[in-house]
Automatic annotation (TrEMBL):
GO molecular function terms listed in the Swiss-Prot or TrEMBL record: protein-arginine omega-N symmetric methyltransferase activity
Keyword RNA-binding: no
Keywords on record: Methyltransferase, Mitochondrion, Transferase
Listed name of the protein: Protein arginine methyltransferase NDUFAF7
Highest taxon of the lineage: Eukaryota
E.C. number: 2.1.1.320
Main location: mitochondrion
Family: Belongs to the NDUFAF7 family.
Organism: Penicillium decumbens
Role: Arginine methyltransferase involved in the assembly or stability of mitochondrial NADH:ubiquinone oxidoreductase complex (complex I).
Keyword Mitochondrion (UniProt): yes
Amino acid sequence: MDSPVLNQMFRQLFRHPACQSLRRSPPSLSRQTRTFLTRRTPAKPKSQDDAMLWTKRGDYPKNIEEEYKLYPTVTAKELQNRRERPRQVKMLTREFTDDSLYNPHYGYFSKHATIFHPGEPFDFSRIEDEPAFHRLLGQRYTEFEDLLDEVKPDVARQLWHTLTEIFRPYYGETIARYLVSNYKLTLYPYHDLIIYEMGAGNGTMMLNILDFIRDTDYEVYQRTKYKIIEISPALADLQMKNLLDTLNSKGHRDRVEIINRSIFEWDTYVHSPCFFLALEVFDNFGHDSIRYDTKTELPQQGGVLIDADGEFHEFYHTQLDPVAARFLRVRQAAARRPYPSPLGPRLLRGLRSMPPFGNDYTLPEYIPTRLMQFFDVLNQYFPAHRLLASDFSSLPDAVPGLNAPVVQTRYQRQTIPVSTPFVHQGYFDIFYPTDFNVVEDVYRAVTGKLTQVATHEEFMNRWAYIEDTETRNGENPMLTWYKNTSMLMTV
């Protein structure tokens, strides 16, 4: 990192087990700030014929040409049985992200899922306004973490919140109204209501949806099947525990199946029509980093080399792997409107390589290659699915680049962002914004289905009982929060 102080802090941080988290801490409690940065300076290629071009770190200027030739290229899947973080290997950016987040032994989501639970649902009719709601939420957040520290203190605890938990049960009921309405319009009575949810957290969305359907339309409830696809064994256990914890939720047991596996390892053909929920999961899918030669406009694919000392060295290669190359082709062929490029407007592109600019390469663009592969899974194994997805359409304080991720961790209840995705695996959340214009076109091209994109507020206005979350002065946090979130729906 950038300073001895930060290095010392992180050495202390890494003495603690990596903890899992699902979402960001509330903006009112700890804003993401660009306090600590990792400075990187580009290195010129040895010759125009070189296929590999590496980026030398300003604080660790090491030539990695020999290591690059010797070290094998590995994938996250090849490392999933490895208990120690890899050294002397090369990885594409998407594979490094997946390994850092999902490795079952040291990944960010591998050990502990500390999801903020506010206790009793908020009674918005008793809350004066949005600032009062912020204060109450902050108070409950602190109380929740204080209780955790009484059991097991942890200065490196990763504690996040979700829309489902904060606006429980109203957010889940909103999703349930959408599902039931569309089911009765298009599938009832010839098919059951089959719901798949990926990345279900602690199972609150499942319980809220099933409670709502049982209480409002018992005939549909009798035909409802709810299936969770969960990559984390710890979360799968937590979801089952919560399902069986109360008498109210025990009645759902016969309607629920929890499948502990990665969606990318799915191999079962589902012929029945179904709804597929992917709420706030796209942001943690692995992305590839692509930069462009400003003279030739040709793309180069990025990755990271991890040397014998565990240091990270970013590199770019002129030969794209098949997945990244396919995404660029699909995006180009499917685009119904212009999409942003790090090359900038076509009329100004020639200026990038001219004085005083003199940039040989653009900043990286992060492309959602793993998301495209998720669409492949839906198309191949769930051909009759209808997708409902939500995620962040933009993020503040991201690392440099187009569609770049936010990379951050938590230490002593403070959020600490960094300026590179290549960080000590398992201790940092890496989450990307979703360009819904591009993603919608790619989804249409892969699946052949029609879609609709709406903002979070538009979706809530249509499907929520908005009076449930209105404060006394008429403000509505469930509408006004998450302005940077959008929804993608199959129609």
